[in-house]
Write a structure and sequence with these properties.
120 residues, mainly alpha, 87% helix
Length: 120
């Protein structure tokens, strides 16, 4: 398979997740808001790196959650009781990462935004 075909397949997968998964859209809009703040605020290089990696981890985990849900749905819940537990665990992993991402955002953005929020 050519490199261009590989990129096409990857982009097709991203478009499919975008079209079909509400939570992925929510994470993408949050990521866009963070990117806008990254472009506006005078951040240090390490802050850009941490925010970029955090965004990527949330989106990757959301895609992995979607893949897991679809895969275990093929197994059908009646075949094994673990199906529901697996889906709940993956959702829990996404929740943990999303909370961690919010904490990272607050830690990095608060010093830059506090003067606008806190009135002296």
């Amino acid at each position: 398979m050519s490199i261009f075909r590989s990129f096409f397949c990857a982009l097709r997968g991203l478009v499919q997740v975008w079209r079909e998964e509400r939570n992925f859209k929510i994470h993408m809009f949050a990521a866009l808001a963070v990117v806008v703040l990254m472009l506006i605020l005078p951040l240090k290089a390490w802050e850009y790196i941490v925010l970029t990696l955090t965004i990527a981890l949330v989106l990757i985990l959301e895609i992995a959650n979607t893949i897991t849900e679809r895969f275990v749905d093929m197994v059908k819940p009646r075949l094994h009781g673990y199906v529901g537990a697996i889906k709940d665990m993956m959702a829990g992993a996404v929740l943990i990462m999303s909370i961690a991402a919010a904490v990272v955002g607050v830690i990095i953005f608060f010093p830059h935004l506090a003067p606008f929020v806190i009135q002296y």
